[in-house]
Each structure stands twice: as structure tokens, then as C-alpha cells.
Amino acid sequence: MDALRIVRHVYDNLTRYGARAALHDVGCRAVNLVADFQILNGMTARLGDVSDPRLFEAPGFRGRFVSVDELSRTVENSHELSSAFLRQAGRRGDRCYAMFDGDVLASYGWYSDLPCEIEIEHLVLHFDPAYTYMYKGYTVPAYRGARLHAVGMCQALRAFTTEGKAGLISYVQSNNFASLRSVARMGYRTFGRVYVLRRGSRAFLYATRSCRDYDFWVESTRG
Hints:
This protein is an alpha+beta fold and 223 residues long. The chain has two domains: 1-34, no CATH class; 35-220, Gcn5-related N-acetyltransferase (GNAT) (Aminopeptidase). It has helices at 3-17, 19-31, 68-74, 83-92, 148-162, 177-186, and strands at 36-45, 62-66, 95-101, 104-112, 116-117, 123-126, 131-139, 167-173, 189-199, 202-207, 217-220. It has an eight-stranded mixed sheet, sandwiched between helices. Strand 7, helix 5 and strand 8 (167-173) form a beta-alpha-beta unit. Helix 1 (3-17) runs antiparallel to helix 2 and helix 3 packs antiparallel against helix 4. The chain starts with a helix and ends with a strand.
């Protein structure tokens, strides 16, 4: 990122999210100059946390669980759903809740009851099995801006609650301010943070005390 882009990025964060957020992002990026550093905000959402009933409906769209076999037949190797990912998700028993425009896939999210690899390479997230872990949310570009991701999560949350789950659990990087704002509007609440610092093959992982209430921690798969 060149100097001009850095200035624009800082100014954008300052005007959109305030001085505290802008300084936090600068600090994270500064540490990343010498090591891979991220802070993961652990978050949960229970059905009662969703205060806006409009988040359960998207007029003109239909939400449902969709099988791996159906996804393999219709959208394999598109919409960020590779054949390798679908095979892995199928073996794990992970479930996909998707929003459709007629028969066209518009948005989806994945849900797991098992410890799960996260976007940071060689790290696995553990969590309280009373919750269902939400990951890999995606909206097809043509449908972005219609809140389909939030509606899909709320509908999935309602379904999992009916099945006896306490709610959804997930994480958002601490300087991903747009996503943090979006999930907060939906009803997600931050309960703790996991600090990830890696340099070469060595990793320092630390979960704050409040993460213990949700058995929320990250494990390195490297020896």
C-alpha cells in the first residue's frame, strides 16, 4: 500500500468510524510490518438479540438449508465454492443456509458444530458446542446491498434455536469495522478477543478470560 493509499485509508476510517478505530487500525498495520498480527473479536447472537423483525424476511427471496450434493450440481467451482471445499464440508457434516432468487443462488453462509479451520492458515477455532459456528458468508455481487447475508443468518439462527442450540458464534477481525458494524446491527455481541501473533513457524495465541465462558480459543495445527 503506497503512501497516498495509506493516507486515504486512514482518513476513510477516521470519517466513517472515528479516531479510536482509525488509531486501532494503524496500530494493527504497524505490527504487521514485522509479524503477522490479528485480533479476533469473538461474538455470539441469540434469537432474542435480533431486535429488528425485518431481518427475518427478504421480500422476493427464499431461504433454506441446501445440501452439499445440490450445491455440487449447480454452483461447483463458482461463487467461491470449490469442489475441494464442498467435499470437506460434506465430510464434516457442515450445513449451508442459502438465500435464493427463484432458483438462483443469491447468498449463503456455512454452519458447523465442530472445531473449524479459520481463514488464518494453520489455525483451528474451538468453541462451546452449545452454539453453532457461522463462517464463510458470501453474497453474489449482483445481490449485494439487499441485506441478504444478515437475513440468511437470522433465518438460520431461528432454525438452529428451534433445534435446541443456544445461538450462533463467530468472529470478526478487530479492524474490519464495516463487518463489525453490520453484525452488531443484526444482534451479535462481542464477548472476548483472541490475539494471534505469528512470525515464521512460531505462533503466540492468547484468548481473553471472557472467552472461557464460550470455550472459545484458537489452536495451531503446526507442530
